[in-house]
Write a structure and sequence with these properties.
There is one protein chain. With 312 residues, the chain is α/β, with parallel strands linked by helices. The chain folds into 2 domains: 180 residues, Formyl transferase, N-terminal domain (Rossmann fold, 3-Layer(aba) Sandwich), CATH 3.40.50.170; 110 residues, Rossmann fold, CATH 3.40.50. It has 10 helices and 14 strands. Strands 3-2-1-4-5-6-7 form a 7-stranded mixed beta sheet, with helices on both faces. α1 runs parallel beside α2 and α5 packs antiparallel against α9. The chain is elongated.
């Protein structure tokens, strides 16, 4: 089988790309031109030559892709994180069709960036769902599914790496068992709920409404792809990249408002109150001036009693 890959992610796609190349199954990889600075050099390092790599441009990508696939004489196309809807005439241009590697449960996590939403929602498992592509987004028949436990405190980048290597498990089945391509499970075509790429509001911590678990999940989901979860202290925006649960004894009767820094010193850094008398230790955050630990922020003048505030 001759397989072409379309990808927009190195960590999710490259283990499969390298395995297909080493087995003599890979005929080429298409990437977005805007991602070439990140993806092009590693693809050359794998061993792909110039004519095996296609850079897709926003205004002309359909023509470029069709012409390229015709020249490669590809039997199938495997897709990892492609942001544009592929029309029917391209889906029908290879006789074994297109398979989408969707890194989330379907139809629950249809739409953009399911890895972010699974971590943010504190799901116990992340899913890889391989399905036939149709003109409807994330709606074609499912041919392979596997779950991966999400580790406590795992961030976006680490989970991407592990899911990318888990995708290798699908290769023997997808290559050797053509009956899979008739679809082993149905996928809901009429599911109306779509996840979107997180924006400013979704990345902002709401100290009053979110629990400590929800805040920690958001922080992990936003690290590193989105630069951390957004918070404000002393009228400055910061991006929290890592936090962990903390235990602290407050004076009897003390009920600090969520977002209040209840403890700060040079050894333990900053501990912040959350809802239901729970606490988070701020381990790493990013400001315009750089990346800092909670201990360094204390040394820079952040004291107990100050507050992270909501601006959303």
């Amino acid at each position: 089988m001759k397989i072409a890959v379309i990808c927009n992610s190195d960590s999710l796609a490259f283990p499969t790309v390298q395995a297909l190349f080493s087995q003599g199954l890979l005929v080429g990889v298409a990437i977005l031109e805007r991602s070439s600075k990140v993806l092009l050099k590693p693809l050359h390092a794998i061993g792909l030559s110039g004519n095996q790599i296609l850079q897709l441009h926003h205004g002309s990508w359909e023509y470029e892709l069709k012409h390229w696939l015709t020249g490669l004489d590809a039997d199938a196309v495997w897709v990892f994180g492609f942001p544009w809807m592929i029309p029917d005439h391209l889906l029908e241009s290879v006789h074994k069709g297109y398979l989408n590697f969707h890194f989330g449960e379907l139809p629950k996590y249809r739409g953009a960036d399911p890895i972010f939403w699974q971590i943010k929602n504190n799901e116990p498992y992340a899913s890889l769902t391989v399905h036939q592509m149709t003109a409807n987004i994330d709606a074609g028949p499912i041919v392979w599914v596997k779950q991966l436990p999400i580790m406590k405190g795992e961030n976006y980048g680490l989970l991407c790496q592990r899911l990318g290597f888990m995708a290798l498990d699908a290769i023997p089945l997808l290559v050797n068992n053509s009956s899979l391509l008739s679809g082993v499970n149905k996928n809901a075509d009429n599911e109306e709920r779509f996840e979107k790429r997180p924006g400013h509001q979704e990345l902002a911590i709401n100290w009053k409404q979110q629990s400590s678990d929800e805040i920690e999940g958001l922080i992990n989901a936003a690290n590193p792809k989105y630069g951390g979860a957004t918070a404000w202290v002393k009228n400055a925006e910061v991006r929290i990249l890592e936090a962990s649960p903390a235990e602290i004894q407050l004076p009897e009767g003390a009920e600090p408002e969520p977002g209040t820094i209840v403890y700060a010193d040079a050894l333990y850094g900053l501990i912040v109150s959350c809802r239901e008398n729970r606490f988070l230790k701020i381990n790493i955050l990013h400001m315009r001036e750089g990346y800092f630990s909670g201990s360094k922020l204390f040394q820079m003048g952040i004291k107990a009693g100050e507050k992270f505030i909501n601006l959303n």
